[in-house]
Amino acid sequence: MSHWNPRRTQMKLPPELTINPLFTREGEQNVPRFHIRDQGMLPETAYQIIHDELALDGNARLNLATFVGTWMEPAADLLYAETFDKNIIDKDEYPQTAAIEERCIRILANLWHSPHPMSTVGVSTTGSSEGCMLGGIALKRRWQHARKKQGKPIDRPNIVFSSAVHVVWEKFANYWDVEPRYVNITKERPYLDPKGVRDAVDENTIGVIAILGVTYTGIYEPVAEIAKALDDLQARTGLDIPMHVDAASGGFIAPFLQPDLVWDFRLPRVKSINVSGHKYGLVYPGIGWVIWRKAKDFPDDLVFRVSYLGGNMPTFGLNFSRPGAQVLLQYYNFLRLGREGYYQVQRTCQSVAKLLSREISKMGPFKILTSGTDTPVITWQMKTDYTSKWNLYDLSRQLRTYGWQVPAYSMPPDLEDITVMRVVVRNGFSIDLAHLFLLNLEQAVTFLDSSPTTTPHGSKTDNGFHH
């Protein structure tokens, strides 16, 4: 079965859209699909064309593949509608939006135990990926400055992370000419191993990336253990290698569900942290944040001061113009939920994940790998002796007939022979929906068990892996 290609698939469609004449005026019945029309059309017609096509999209509430939030309450929707036109970069035109962004930075710096939360550096981003890029750039620039002071070359930087790292870090290494050094995960240690870190780093290492919520499995990497290994290395060799924590998922979970877990700025070696506000920060996409432990941990020469739109404005994000509404929605959640509210939401998500884990483990075909004890993410694989008639890719495809989007995918290098299925439990996925999902999962297994053996197996190219 060939991999789905959206461009190739689109080219199979007729060159014109045919519109239902019940809601069009004369001359609107045919619309070119791939070039702009000479004349405009009624707003109702344009709306209906897009509305009808989007009916073929999946139901966002049934999307168990993505970490990204798909639900906010009506008051937040109203705030979103009132503020979608604000440009976060226009600090002079929207000073109160800028002030609220600054408050969010201070709130996160406090949440993650910065020693100087009121003066450290941070910024909102379009998502966690931009936050990762900024964190990586700062690591590289700090390393370059230190090497130049020592009179040493700066032409061979490297960065260390596990093979289960998010693709954004591979992009960072590629885009900014940094050698990626992977510490492969294993069945026994499916995370960044401190010993592997010690073996991988050297004087050209700009930093080590630890993940608080691995995309593949949802587990936390042992940040404190890695920091201790680097402390020991510095004591023996003098090498002072900083850390960045990619807390895209866990940064809004650990402070509330695991407050005693030491992973953040309580560790002096952790210099920066990024998080996705649109994941367990509970905001619509796309909003992220990156915070540095102290202001001095962010190189000042990465800041651009721009005289623009009425004021002299410092900026160091990769993007310029972008929506301000999501920043306001983040602040709305901080006000609306508080610590207790975030705890209740994340605990409920974790309870649903543990319920799914218990019930799926009772089903004949499956073996649970992660049960939602870190982030509310569960993964499972098929028992090797269950059947050769179908696999998890087939199951993923069958679940789509009920509307559920559940990814199946192979694990990172050295574990490629293991295929897993993952469910991300987010705010809005209730206990009731979980029971309905379990019912449909049982029905899907029954259908596949009763299917003829000639049914072609699905493969990893048939099913997207969503972050």
Automatic annotation (TrEMBL):
Domain of life: Bacteria
Entry's Gene Ontology molecular function annotations: glutamate decarboxylase activity
Keywords: Decarboxylase, Lyase, Pyridoxal phosphate
EC numbers, comma separated: 4.1.1.15
Key word Calcium present: no
Pfam families (UniProt xref): Pyridoxal_deC
Catalysed reactions, as listed in the record: L-glutamate + H(+) = 4-aminobutanoate + CO2
Root EC class: lyase
Keyword Lyase found: yes
Cofactors, names only: pyridoxal 5'-phosphate
Protein family (similarity comment): Belongs to the group II decarboxylase family.
Listed name of the protein: Glutamate decarboxylase
Species name: Alicyclobacillus fastidiosus
